[in-house]
Design a protein that fits this description.
The complex is a heterodimer of chains A (84) and B (224).
Chain A lengths: L2 H11 L5 E4 L6 E3 L8 H33 L3 H8 L1
Antiparallel strand pairs in A: 1-2
Chain B lengths: L1 E2 L6 E2 L9 H19 L8 E4 L6 E4 L7 E5 L2 E5 L7 E9 L3 E4 L4 E9 L7 E13 L8 E7 L2 E10 L8 E12 L7 E9 L6 E3 L6 E8 L2
Antiparallel strand pairs in B: 1-2, 3-4, 5-6, 7-16, 8-15, 9-14, 10-13, 10-15, 10-16, 11-12, 11-14
The chains are: A mainly alpha (84), B mainly beta (224).
Chain lengths: 84, 224
């Protein structure tokens, strides 16, 4: 897990959290928020969930893009050439 | 009887009939001896004299100790140890290289700290700070980082208020932020300096020592 993934996962569980993270793992986490701190397991699960969500969003976006290109009968490269 | 102009020694007048020449010479010699001793009271190798508040009477100043310099105190010369003014008396250096991520608008320790014990209460402490890896995350246009310097837990300088501010939602890796501060702690007790940082908008994070870059703090004790 990267610090970015940890921060995003915690914000996914507790919006706008207050915390400090020293180092690069959850052992360095100090919870400053008044709301309950999510467990280590919950954070680790949220990291995995977000990876899946981001992957699904990327695939959904790619599929939508592909569908549009199919409808207009062009490839992505051909469209780039046309648009300059 | 006549007297000399400067020291008032008694001498026979030109017209005086000197009955006892030897006695007159002894009297004059005694006066000269007394005056000379008053003007040269030194007794020891290296002694010097200076004028006292009494006319024609100097004061002896005994030789000073090795390394002493001549100075003035109370309106008269005196020997004293040379002042340490402006000299670096000691140096303390520390570094910290662990990334700290913060989601809070309350000042929080960066991990960078150093302690110095001044040798004199009149000494000044020159604090040099170089914070590396100053970073503002994406997703918020208004976020930026504040940094402050503390002595024994009390803030003495807020040296950065908007590090990383871009007015856009893109991330901002600033790099280094430095400061210097001349402090007068007025103590000979151990004195701890440290830095803290904070978010101005804690919806996104700020980081310091990003990617474990090395921040440093240097404390120089300067003699008064």
């Amino acid at each position: 897990m990267t610090n970015t993934e940890i921060a995003e996962a915690i914000a996914y569980l507790v919006p706008n959290p207050e915390l400090v993270l020293v180092g690069h793992d959850l052992d360095g986490l100090t919870w400053l928020d008044e709301r309950p701190m999510p467990s280590k397991a919950e954070i680790e699960k949220a990291v995995k969930d977000l990876v899946k969500i981001k992957k699904a969003e990327a695939e959904k976006k790619a599929a939508a893009k592909s569908a549009i290109l199919d409808r207009i009968g062009l490839t992505a490269d051909e469209l780039k050439t046309i648009l300059g | 009887m006549a007297t000399t102009t400067n020291y008032g020694w008694t001498t026979p007048d030109d017209t005086a009939l000197v009955k006892d020449g030897a006695s007159a010479i002894r009297t004059l010699g005694s006066s000269v001896d007394t005056t000379t001793k008053a003007l040269n009271p030194s007794t020891t190798l290296g002694d010097i004299e200076y004028r006292s508040s009494t006319a024609n009477t100097n004061t002896r100043l005994g030789i000073g100790s090795t390394g002493n310099v001549l100075t003035v105190a109370g309106g008269v010369p005196t020997w004293a140890a040379p002042a340490g003014g402006g000299k670096v008396l000691q140096v303390v250096n520390a570094q910290y290289g662990t990334e700290v991520l913060l989601l809070s608008s309350t000042f929080t320790d960066t991990g960078l700290t150093a302690t110095i014990t001044p040798s004199s209460a009149t000494s000044k402490i020159l604090v040099l700070v170089n914070h590396t890896g100053v970073y503002k995350a994406y997703d918020n246009a208004t976020n930026s980082m504040g940094l402050q310097l503390l002595r024994n837990g009390s803030s003495i300088l807020v040296f950065e208020k908007k590090a990383g501010f871009t007015n856009t939602t893109i991330e901002s890796a600033v790099g280094s932020v430095s400061t210097s501060y001349l402090d007068s702690p007025a103590t000979t007790s151990a004195t701890t300096y440290k830095t803290q940082f904070k978010n101005f908008f804690n919806g996104t994070n700020v980081r310091i020592q990003y990617a474990d870059s090395i921040s440093t703090i240097t404390l120089l004790e300067i003699g008064a």
